[in-house]
Specification:
The protein has 250 residues and is α/β, with parallel strands linked by helices. Helix content is 44%, strand content 15%. The chain contains 8 helices and 7 strands, in the order E-H-E-H-E-H-E-H-E-H-H-E-H-H-E.
Length: 250
C-alpha cells in the first residue's frame, strides 16, 4: 500500500522538533501538507508560533516530553494515533553532544549520551514501527552525525552513540524492507544552528576553511534530504548513511 505520495494523508513524528534542525524538519513537512507531531522537554517560541498559525495549527501537535521518558513517549504516541492514526514517517532527531575528553567526562554524562542518542531512538522506533509493519509502508530517518563516521577529539561517547545509530539503521533496514519500510540515517556536518553558537570565531573560520563548499551547512541542506527520503521517490534507498557536510569528511 503506497501512501507516501499523498502527503496530505501522512502522519509525521519528529523528535526534538522545537528548535534548530528539528524545527526546520517540522517546517519542511508542514509545508508539504503533512500532519506533524513533535516533542521536546519544553516548549519554545517556534512551538507557540505553529500552535497559533491558522495555516498549520490543525496539522500540528506538540508534547512536552523528554525523549528518554519511555512512558511519556508511549502516551504521546497514543495521543497522535487517536487524533490522526498511525505514524507513517518517523524522524529521530532528538539528541545531545557533550564536548569533553573521555578521562574527564562524568559517568552520568556517559549514561545521558547513550540513553538519549541511542537507546531512546531504539525504543521509540520499536513502538512506531509495529503499526508500519501492519500498514506495509513506512519511513524511518535517523539523524546521525559525521562524528560517528570519522571521530572527533572530545566527542568519543557521542561518536560511539551515533556509530551505534548507523549500525541500528543498517540492521533494521534488513528486518523491515520486505514490508515496504525504509530505514536510513542522515549524517550532518557542522550546521549553522544553536549547537555551533558556542564556537569562537577562530574555530568557525577554521571549519569553513576545511570545508570544500566554503561555508557551514544550513538546516535546509539537511531537511530537504530528509523530506526526499520520506517520499515515495526514495522507495529503493534503505540501510544507508547519507552525509551532508559540504565535503569536509571527503
Amino acid at each position: 500500500m503506497s501512501i507516501g505520495g499523498n502527503t496530505s494523508s501522512r502522519v509525521v513524528l519528529v523528535s526534538g522538533g522545537s528548535r534548530g534542525l528539528g524545527a526546520a524538519l517540522v517546517d519542511e513537512f508542514l509545508a508539504q501538507g503533512d500532519r506533524v507531531a513533535t516533542f521536546s522537554r519544553r516548549s519554545t517560541d517556534r512551538v507557540d508560533a505553529w500552535k497559533s498559525d491558522p495555516r498549520v495549527r490543525d496539522r500540528f501537535h506538540f508534547g512536552e516530553v523528554d525523549a528518554t521518558d519511555r512512558e511519556g513517549c508511549k502516551k504521546l504516541l497514543g495521543e497522535i494515533t487517536e487524533k490522526w492514526g498511525n505514524v507513517q514517517v518517523l524522524v529521530n532527531n532528538a539528541g545531545m553532544a557533550i564536548d569533553a575528553l573521555l578521562p574527564i567526562l562524568k559517568d552520568d554524562d556517559v549514561d545521558k549520551l547513550i540513553e538519549l542518542d541511542l537507546k531512546s531512538v531504539i525504543f521509540l522506533t520499536k513502538r512506531v514501527i509495529r503499526p508500519m509493519l501492519l500498514d506495509n509502508w513506512g519511513r524511518v530517518i535517523n539523524i546521525s552525525s559525521v562524528v560517528g563516521l570519522r571521530g572527533y577529539r572530545g566527542l568519543s561517547v557521542y561518536g560511539a552513540a551515533k556509530a551505534g545509530l548507523d549500525g541500528f539503521t543498517r540492521a533494521l533496514a534488513r528486518e523491515v524492507g520486505v514490508r515496504n519500510i525504509t530505514v536510513n540515517s542522515v549524517a550532518p556536518g557542522y550546521l549553522r544552528t544553536e549547537m555551533t553558537h558556542g564556537l569562537d570565531e577562530n574555530n568557525m573560520n577554521q571549519i569553513v576553511r576545511r570545508t570544500p563548499m566554503g561555508r557551514l551547512g544550513e538546516v535546509e541542506d539537511v531537511s530537504s534530504l530528509v523530506a526526499f527520503l520520506a517520499s515515495d521517490k526514495a522507495g529503493f534507498i534503505t540501510g544507508q548513511t547519507l552525509v551532508v557536510d559540504g565535503g569536509i569528511t571527503s
